Amino acid sequence: MPTPTKGPRLGGSPAHERLMLANLATSLFQHGRIKTTETKARRLRPLAEQLITKAKRGDLASRRRVLTVVRDKDVVYALFDQIAPRYANRNGGYTRIVKTGPRKGDAAPMAIIELVEELQVAEPTANRKATARKAAQQDKVEALAPAEETPAPQPADQDAEAPVSASGDTAAAREDSDLATEEGKA
Q1: How does DSSP classify residue 138?
Q2: How many Cα atoms within 13 Å fall on the side-chain side of residue 143?
Q3: Do residues 97 and 22 lie in contact, with contact meaning Cβ atoms separated by under 8 Å?
Q4: How far is CA 155 from the centre of its chain?
Q5: CA 101 – CA 82 distance, rounded (Å)
Q6: Which of 37, 54, 147, 183 could form a disulfide with 62 if both were Cys (CB 3.0 to 4.6 A apart)?
Q7: C-alpha span between 41 and 114 (Å, rounded)
Q8: pLDDT tens-place string over residues 45-56
Q9: Low complexity bias located where (predicted)?
Q10: 35 bridge partner residues
Q11: Model pTM?
Q12: Residue 162: phi, psi to the nearest 5?
């Protein structure tokens, strides 16, 4: 938990500020995004990022540290099992603050703070090129591999007539002539 700053503390004592930030963090992890004032969003961001970093560790001590701030066990479970694994390859910057217009009643500047979604599609350019190269190499290997010969289908009824080609040969006669030419070559 960040230490309270000197000066105004979001309209209350340091204890009230800690509780307010804990409630905001709980709501953020529960809903994925919340709308609040810009000041509260800026104060919440470091706390939320610290909690996600602790959740990425996943050990018991980290879980207990997070439970001192976020009191809802269901939210802590979701943080450790659903939210933290999304950011396994990310070193920071788990949240985003988007400024919205002023609030209607008192014209306070409002903002939306949300968890940044990890996109599975967006890969670094080097990874895309490497993946394309591997796919091209695999295609070459498959093209060079000898194709397996499949045996000709046998008619279900042995007494049935063999199919006749346009030249009048039966399939059996063609096979016999092919075998004879192969034996002649050998």
Answers
A1: H
A2: 6
A3: no
A4: 51
A5: 31
A6: 54
A7: 10
A8: 999 999 999 999
A9: 143-163
A10: 112
A11: 0.61
A12: -75, 145
Each residue of 131-185: pLDDT tens digit? 767 776 766 666 666 655 556 666 665 555 555 555 555 555 666 666 556 655 6
- Rounded-to-integer distance, Cα 19 and Cα 153, Å: 77
Least Cα distance to 73 among 19, 30, 10, 108 occurs for 30
Question: Taking Cα atoms as reference points, which of 32, 167, 2, 141 lies closest to residue 96?
Answer: 32
Instruction: Show the tokens assigned to 105.
Output: 């009643």
User: Residue type for 182, please?
Assistant: E
Report residue 49 as tokens: 């990022």
Q: Which amino acid is at 106?
A: D
- How far is the C-alpha of 1 from the C-alpha of 59, rounded, in Å? 18
Residue pair 75/26 in contact by the 8 Å Cβ criterion: yes
Measured distance CA(69)–CA(92) in Å, rounded: 20
